[in-house]
Design goal:
Helix content: 40-55%
Number of helices: 8
Distance between the termini: 17 Å
Strand order of the largest sheet: 1-2-3-4
Largest sheet: 4 strands, antiparallel
Structural class: alpha+beta
């Protein structure tokens, strides 16, 4: 048995198999296509969807549960500099201003973790010419930049992917649509 319905711009197809199995197919103009097939649900597809939670649903259908978060990553770097690198207050104010401007640009433009790592490994080459004082800049590199470049992948933070969030929210709407 097949059931078709639409929620906003999202088309949903439910396929009910005779032996307790079923499949859901989701096609969204904004988020792409998703599908998942359950071979043993213990009920029909509609009842099954009414009784599962959003996390289970999104994990089954989403290709990527987590994705790189440049915002959270840059926040962790700034916290690391502030709390873990011992700087004399006021010693590197200009240099920190230049570094923070560059980190903000990374936050704005980096969408992938590999891209972030590449930026961090080359950060000194990109900002050293902006430093006003060469000797002070070398000391700043030794005290701050070298730590950031050592293993930048350890700063990487993730957040739920757009697909995961979309599917989590969609299940609630599907359940509302399916309620008798």
């Amino acid at each position: 048995m097949t059931t078709n319905f639409k929620i906003g711009t999202t088309d949903i197809v439910l396929l009910d198999y005779k032996k307790g199995g079923g499949k859901i197919i989701i096609s969204s103009n904004d988020h792409g296509c998703f599908d998942y097939e359950w071979l043993c649900m213990g009920s029909n597809i509609k009842e099954f969807l009414l009784n599962i939670n959003a996390d289970y649903f999104a994990r089954k259908l989403s290709k990527n549960i987590l994705s790189f978060s440049s915002e959270k990553t840059i926040e962790v770097i700034k916290d690391y500099i502030k709390n873990d690198i011992r700087l004399i207050e006021g010693e590197f104010d200009e240099e920190m201003g230049i570094l923070n401007t560059y980190l903000d640009k990374i936050n704005e433009y980096c969408r992938y973790s590999l891209e972030f790592v590449e930026h961090m490994l080359n950060i000194w080459d990109r900002i050293k010419y902006l430093m006003p004082d060469y000797k002070k800049a070398e000391k700043f590199k030794k005290n701050v930049i070298d730590y950031l470049q050592e293993e930048p992948q350890h700063f990487i933070q993730e957040d739920y992917s757009d697909g995961y969030i979309f599917l989590s929210e969609l299940l609630k709407k599907i359940q509302k649509e399916l309620k008798p």
